[in-house]
Amino acid sequence: MSANGSGIGASVKRKEDNRFLTGRGRYTDDINLPGQLYGHILRSPVAHANIGGIDTSAAEAAPGVHAVFTGKDMEGVGGIPTGWLIHSKDGSPMVEPAHPALALGKVRYVGDCVAIVVAESREQAKEAANLVEVDYQELPAVASIEAAEAEGAAAVFDEASNNVCYDWEVGDRAATDAAFDEATHVVSIDVVNNRLIPNAIEPRAAIANYDPATGDYTLYTTSQNPHLVRLLLGAFVLGLPEHKLRIVAPDVGGGFGSKIPHYAEEAILTWTAGQLGRPVKWTCERIDAFKSDTHGRDHISTARLALDADGTFLGLHVSTKANLGAYLSTFATCVPTYLYGILFAGPYTTPAVYCEVKSFFTNTVPVDALRGAGRPEATYLLERLVEKAAVELGMDRVEIRRKNFIREFPYQTPVALQYDLGDYDATLDLALEASDWAGFEARRAESAARGKCRGIGISTFIEACGIAPSAVVGSLGARAGLYESGSVRVHPTGSVSVFTGTHSHGQGHETTFAQIVSDMLGVDFDAVDVVHGDSAKIPFGMGTYGSRSLAVGGTAIYLAVEKVIEKGKKIAAHLLEAAVEDIEFENGSFTVAGTDRSKSIGEVALTAYVPHNYPEGLEPGLEETAFYDPLNFTFPAGTHIAEVEVDPETGEVDVVAVTGADDVGRVINPMIVAGQLHGGLAHGIGQALLEECLYQEDGQLQTGSYLDYTMPRAADLPSFSINHNTTLCTHNPLGVKGVGEVGSIGVPPAVINAVIDALRPLGVNDMAMPATSQRVWQAIQQAQG
Amino acid sequence: MNDFTYHAPTSLDDALAALRGGDGAKLIAGGHSLLPVMKLNLAAPTDLVSLAGVPGLGDITDGGDSVTVGAMCTHADVAGSDVVRARIPALAAMADGIGDAQVRNAGTIGGSVAHNDPAADYPAACVALGATVVTDRREIHADDFFQGMFATALADDEVITAVRFPVAARAAYAKFANPASKYAVAGVMVADGAAGVRVAVTGASGDGVFRVAEMEAALGASFSGEAVAGIAVSSDGMLSDTAAGADYRAHLVTVMAKRAVEACG
Ligand SMILES: Cc1cc2nc3c(=O)[nH]c(=O)nc-3n(C[C@H](O)[C@H](O)[C@H](O)COP(=O)(O)OP(=O)(O)OC[C@H]3O[C@@H](n4cnc5c(N)ncnc54)[C@H](O)[C@@H]3O)c2cc1C
Questions:
Q1: Does residue B242 sit at the A interface (CB-CB below 8 Å)?
Q2: Residue nearest to atom 12 of ligand 1 (CA)
Q3: SS3 of B193, please?
Q4: Residues in chain A whose beta carbon is closer than 8 A to a beta carbon of chain B?
């Protein structure tokens, strides 16, 4: 690969920012279709109730109203499916209750879809929705894991006894028990992983259209994976063949996981458009987004680490309870299992690891992936526990980690994953150096002189990106493959359109992928455009989540470019009257080896489309598609260090420094990678210090707006120190790994470890997330008796 | 949000007439308190009477021993005013700490005072500095104006035209903000002025702004942070929400009072 000014490794400014920064992005809500109507979704105000009846007559008679549909009207339509079948320890399949798009007979959370009111204007639809009379016969609600598992708890679903969806395990329990029998030290910890609300800046929206002339449906929707929506909505819900259903996810303003699932609203809108023969548009208001976008995390765990006398890890035992919410969202079931339990080796050689996870239904918003999805939960638990072990054994916090690092690769963990390569010492050293770890005590003393308690915390972690291969995930219960497609169309005059099945909603794919193609083909960066987000344009795709886009989607594009080059060589050989084997391709030129005779990619492309002088038997055109199914996950790794200052009078925590030393594989665009790390770190600091979704016992959302739900702001964050040590992924040609979630995975335990480090002199030894000022103040009060 | 009729009067008399015209008419200034409650259908005025076009409500004047701030001055106007910064820097600093830039550019002193949100900052400043609220028909001392959560001495058809603040010898405001909304969880204005030392607290109590007599007496004897550091306020009647329970709020009142005194220099 050649390094040109905008090729691989260059901090090229983002192509897409031209339209975003000039206000010309085209989001779903910007789309208007002739004759469109507006849908308003009436949502349940109560967490759990039987629906005695629904009277829609007054709403139907209201000005501008075209129709009101309820669950009864949609009764024949399929329910919203879930994407992953988990089996319990005893081999039984998980409980998988029906999820009607519009509630049928019962509502199960505040925000559950009850009816759609369709009117000429948004306001009319909303006003009329106030006139729908629903007879809610309230039932006791279970709004937390504790409530769900309590004796005599109300049942969210009759078929789920004790509200349990599944009771899953991974790892060798007997071997782990044996490790504990041998151990000199056992350290245990209880942690809660706080529930979060994702808060993408663009609320969800959809506009559905049905063309009676052709029978074609089109749905514009705020999705991270339009083809997945087509698959689920078409095959499972509406029973429409793929060629009659087009899904477009245009510019999307952030997802963070909350735009992965196929949502009930998408099904309701599409079905309604079919019923009325008119386009129907819906845009979620922020207040509804809080109670209808899938939430994230919400675990309660207890774990034990077995160590020998000198601090070597012998075994790890984790028991987790996870909250899945009221219905099984698309990836709800795999997040606390196959994206969580298999992470527990971390960067350590712990020989025996066992993790069991019991997941519960509750009367809360469905829980699904949120930036990191499972991996932040695992990393938080492990790094809190390792830190605690160091303190209890009186060992140095860095040395206990270093002592247990994996150094031989490939490394087969006891929990299914096989790491291809990493260098955990290198990122640790880099982080210690960049954070001036050694000079910390002086800074602590300086803070103390100002009446502040300073602490430093560390987390060394691995993550797993680009979940794959399809055959393996299939055997574990995935109902879809996890490959990706990429198409590269070289136009007659040499410009290039690239089609990817991944979806960019902030990640900068249009730039990164263009850099790869421009670099490989030797064409101008500006001559390459990336097309994504439209099932009618892109062959197929699995979308963007789990930091998969570059490692899986980028590789598919890479392979398609290779095919283009192979075909180009045949054309060039013909034009140059040389043997194909003698043609070399570099910097956009096909050259006969050892000569100066060459043809440019542009000439070759023109010949491919104007094949007057052309190899016999070769198809015209220069366009190739590749599907890539990875052999393995990729394994980014790193060290994050956080330094905090606590005001002991108020409990306020100020994050004064954050250092990341990351191995994310080959970096295509350093500026975009830094942006992803910054965003992830902000997200992780938000979880550690500020964000917490709270429900009342009766299932009412307490933190239902920005008055109560704290998002991190720029002023809450320090300037980040970002450092890289790169080992190349061994099983994809670009050597890339993934970066979108690293910050939110690595940093929360570093922050909490720092807070505890700051407060340990005051007698505080534990801290829950988020470490809000009130929580810190209370902990200090308690410790001081 | 329900439909309403919008009025844009260009004189105070027309504003008053419009206000009396509709039964359920309301004034609108910056709209940053009123519109959110209308969106939630917690208020449904039939008529909105904008004060934006009424002349004379946007001035800040130096009266020697007082500063008068027109009702339509935004928080940003107050924070950036040379007069306020020179004469009552604590007031400018307080205004600069309200919400965020968007809120400060839209929200007004008149709206804030009339709304009397228990977590708003201005009530503490008004009471501690001994301000006078000037309306279309009378003057009301801050001590009489604020009458508990969202309640004031204003009549339904009364318009605030200005707030007059006596210049204090020294004053400072210390605020512990709600991390999400940035409203006050505990905001304490300490002022040492013609009427002696006053300590006014906002954000903490369900009854809105209140004074702490014990702290005022202690500061009268010795104006120092230490003098108030040991004075606890009762958590009875304190607000309690997800960000701060009553005990924590009561504790913060003492800490903020101490910091305000120390900031007086
Ligand atoms: C996100 C956010 C954060 C905020 N943070 C803070 C904060 O930290 N501290 C703080 O103090 N406030 C805060 N506020 C409130 C903000 O300061 C409001 O703007 C202010 O309280 C009301 O002023 P307004 O001009 O917007 O009034 P409006 O919303 O227009 O009106 C409020 C009420 O006052 C009445 N009214 C308005 N003007 C007059 C007048 N001249 N005479 C009589 N009645 C009148 C109206 O009829 C209405 O009942 C915040 C608001 C938001 C949205």
A1: yes
A2: B120
A3: strand
A4: 287, 649-651, 690, 692, 694, 702-703, 706-711, 772-774, 777-778
**Which residues on chain B are in Cβ contact (under 8 Å) with A707?**
178, 180-181, 183
**CA torsion angle for A506, A511, A516, A522 (degrees, to 10)?**
170
Rounded to an integer, what is the distance from CA A463 to the centroid of its chain? Answer: 13
Quick one: DSSP state of residue A554?
I
For ligand 1, what atom is nearest to the CA of residue B33? 29
In the reported structure, the alpha carbon of residue B114 is separated from the centroid of ligand 1 by a whole-number distance in angstroms of 8
For tokens 């600093």, what's the residue? B93
Cis peptide, bond prior to residue A198, ω within 30 of zero: no
Asked if the C-beta of B42 comes within 8 angstroms of chain A's C-beta atoms, the answer is: no
CB B29 near ligand 1, within 6 Å? yes
CB contact under 8 A, B181 and A777: no
Q: How many CB atoms lie within 10 A of CB A24?
A: 10
- Select from A621, A331, A354 the least CA-distant residue to A482: A331
What distance separates the 2 farthest-apart alpha carbons in chain A? 90
In the numeric block, which tokens belong to residue A53? 């009846």
pLDDT in tens, A717-747: 999 999 999 999 999 999 999 999 999 999 9
pLDDT digits (tens, 9 = 90+) for B17-70: 999 987 899 999 999 999 999 988 889 999 999 999 999 999 999 999 999 999
Tell me whether residues B180 and A708 touch, CB distance under 8 A.
Answer: yes
Rounded-to-10 torsion of CA A541, A544, A545, A549: 90
Residue count of chain A: 785
- Domains in chain A (CATH in brackets) are 17-24+483-628 (3.30.365.10), 31-139+201-254+259-290 (3.90.1170.50), 299-467+632-784 (3.30.365.10)
Q: Is B222 an 8 Å CB contact of chain A?
A: no
User: How does residue A2 score in pLDDT terms, banded at 50, 70 and 90?
Assistant: very low
B35 touches chain A (CB under 8 A): no
**CB of B181 closer than 6 angstroms to any ligand 1 atom:** yes
Answer yes or no: are the C-beta atoms of A377 and A257 closer than 8 Å.
Answer: no
Q: Please indicate whether residue B30, judged by its CB atom, sits closer than 6 Å to ligand 1.
A: yes
Residue of chain B whose alpha carbon sits nearest to that of A694? B242
B251/A contact by beta carbon, under 8 A: yes
Chain A interface includes B250 (CB < 8 A): no
CB environment B174-211: b (16+ within 10 A), e (fewer) = bbbbbbbbbbbbbbbbbbbbeeebbbbbbbbbeebbbe
With contact defined as beta carbons under 8 Å apart, do A642 and A750 qualify? yes
Q: Residue A289 is inside which H or E element, if any?
A: helix A286-290
Q: Is the predicted pLDDT of residue A410 greater than 70, yes or no?
A: yes
The SS3 assignment for B5 reads strand
Strands B160-166, B5-7: pairing kind: unpaired
- Where is A453: in which H helix or E strand? strand A453-462
Contacts of B245 in chain A (CB under 8 A): 774
Asked whether B11 lines ligand 1 (CB < 6 A), one says no
Q: Is A33 helix (H, G, I), strand (E, B) or coil?
A: coil
Long-range contacts of A604-607, Cβ-Cβ distance < 8 Å, separation of 24 or more = A604/A568, A604/A571, A604/A572, A604/A575, A605/A490, A605/A491, A605/A492, A605/A493, A605/A494, A605/A568, A606/A492, A606/A493, A606/A494, A607/A571, A607/A575
Ligand 1 pocket, residue B51 CB under 6 Å: yes
Q: What is the ipTM of this complex?
A: 0.96
pTM score, two decimals? 0.97
CB A120 within 8 A of CB A37: yes
Q: Which atom of ligand 1 is nearest to B34's Cα?
A: 29
Q: Searching chain B, which residue's CA lies closest to the CA of residue A701?
A: B242
What residues pair up with A301 in beta bridges, in sequence order?
Answer: A191, A320
* Domains in chain B: ranges and CATH: 5-50 (3.30.43.10), 60-263 (3.30.465.10)
